[in-house]
Amino acid sequence: MNIQISNISHLFCSMETTIVSRLLSKLKEEYPSEQPLGSYISKELQFESILQLLPGKNDEHRPAIYSTTLSVLYTHKNIRNFIENQFNLHEFHIQCNDRVGILLPNGTELGLCLLATCSYYASSYLSDITYLGYYSLSMVIFGSIFKLLTFINLCQPAFRNTNARPTIHYMRVLALIDLFAMYGWNLDNYLGLVQGFTFYSSYTVASCKVFSFFNYFTNETSAWLHVFICFDRYLFLSRTQPNTWFNRSKSVLIIIGCVIGVFILANLHFLIFVCYEDDNEKINTGSKFYQVFPLYNQIYAFISSVIPSVVMMTFSCVSAYYLRQLRQTSTIQNSKIRHRAISITLISTSLLFVITSAPTPIFYGFFYDDLSKTALGRRVLNIFDTLSYTYPIIDFPIYLITFTEFRRELIRLLIRNRAISPIITENTQRPAPQNRAQNISTAHNF
């Protein structure tokens, strides 16, 4: 027991006073003194007089007094939820039990231990909290604009002949899937770090179910659509007669429907069995019927990262080899030359997907417990989170740079929309000369 108490003292010493004082200020703002709970908080926060009675410098004792006061407040359910949402640690209780392991006789975690562990884990990365949150929000905003532009542009007349280029189906669906995916973990990252709540773990049970399903479904679907894009390019570039079953328009639609259907069924258990409200009226992201995490995160890492990455890299490397061979063209290969630009674009975006999005599920699925215990490990997780949040805005510039037809149609789309009003004005101002010309012509004929 003495060893455990010394662990708590060590955790208290590692805390930053500014972090705790900032949380105390937020508590005062959240619960004004005129409210019953606010009056209770104000009474407990009257510790400045205690500091004056302590020997030595007040700053030396301030962290312990602040933290002890918070540990008292932590025993209240509403305040406990507020504190945990502010720090946004989903495995808050688990980390505390693993690190210190103190339990009260009634089986509940000791508030002092929980608060100390929370402060210990939060102190090293709270300086980055605002940056990462607003960075995620900016990615959602710009990514939404880019994905909408991509989808609208791919629906223009130049890309409507999907019998000649069925790969356009993949590109359109991917634009929509990636657009929806940004409103999952990307948006929740901003809400959790800046606003203090997430749709996934701390809003309602319904939002927990929907966003759990939504996050895993969109990312798995996106990964496997990229796999079939790479497979499509491999078949098209490696065969003398590329018109196989997989390269036909209806077949591509069937493949897309099957991919979406499979991952809807694979993640349907989130909507039915996962997420519930526990005895403390807190949202639990697990299940009452079976253990979901960490096993599902490891399965998810294989389904959305390991297997798709290996397959994509294999097909992309072989396709890149055949692209180089197209420099010595023949009459039979002329059709492939016309598809060279779109092939370069799709292979580039797939490789970019592997680099930016694949590592994050792997690290969270297999190395999260070890990485989250050190400051360097948490920085590594932050770096890969940032990479995965950045992908939705990177593929749009690649489309513009490598896909000439896409760039040309986008410019036409933007210029045409800007030129609509002048054209209308010009047409409305010139009916009289037109009518006069018609009258003159009619009179001449007579």
Automatic annotation (TrEMBL):
It is found in: Membrane. It comes from Adineta ricciae. The keyword S-adenosyl-L-methionine does not apply. Its main location: membrane. InterPro entries: GPCR-Ligand_Int, GPCR_Rhodpsn, GPCR_Rhodpsn_7TM. The chain crosses the membrane at residues 102-122, 134-155, 167-185, 252-274, 299-323, 344-367, 387-406. Keywords: Membrane, Transmembrane, Transmembrane helix. This is G-protein coupled receptors family 1 profile domain-containing protein. GO terms for cellular component: membrane.
